[in-house]
Amino acid sequence: MEYVLAHEYVHIRRFDSIRKLALIVVLCVHWFNPLVWGMYVLANRDIELSCDEAVVRLFGESAKTAYARALISMEETRSGLTPLVTILVKLLLKKGLLRL
Questions:
Q1: Cβ of 84: how many Cβ atoms within 10 Å?
Q2: CA dihedral in degrees (62, 100, 87, 72; nearest 10)?
Q3: What DSSP line would sit under 29-59, residue for residue?
């Protein structure tokens, strides 16, 4: 739970809600442009990955695996299923082949 709170705190500290609102405004104005849709998706992904990196830096390199498992656990709970991708990620984490 502390990883999730730290992740959300980073969003608050960086004013990511304002950035996301600006992205939505641009998307609404240019809804017909597929490049803007791509920008929107990639910018949201970058914002989330940046917060993930900040959390790992905050808790240290040794917390990477625990943080990744917390994210996987939350996704399993949210989706109600254990998707094939989640199984693959768990296997890779177990073998140490995946780095966050």
A1: 8
A2: 80
A3: HTTT-HHHHHHHHHHHHHHHHHHHHHHHHHH
* Tokens (6 digits) for 6: 């730290």
pLDDT category of residue 96 using cuts at 50, 70 and 90: low
Q: Is the pTM of this model over 0.90?
A: no
As given in the structure block, the two tokens for residue 16 are 């990511």
Q: Would you say residue 84 has pLDDT above 70? A: no
d(CA 29, CA 88): 39
Residue with tokens 């109600």: 80
Q: What is the mean pLDDT of residues 60-78?
A: 82
The 10 Å Cβ neighbour count of residue 3 is: 20
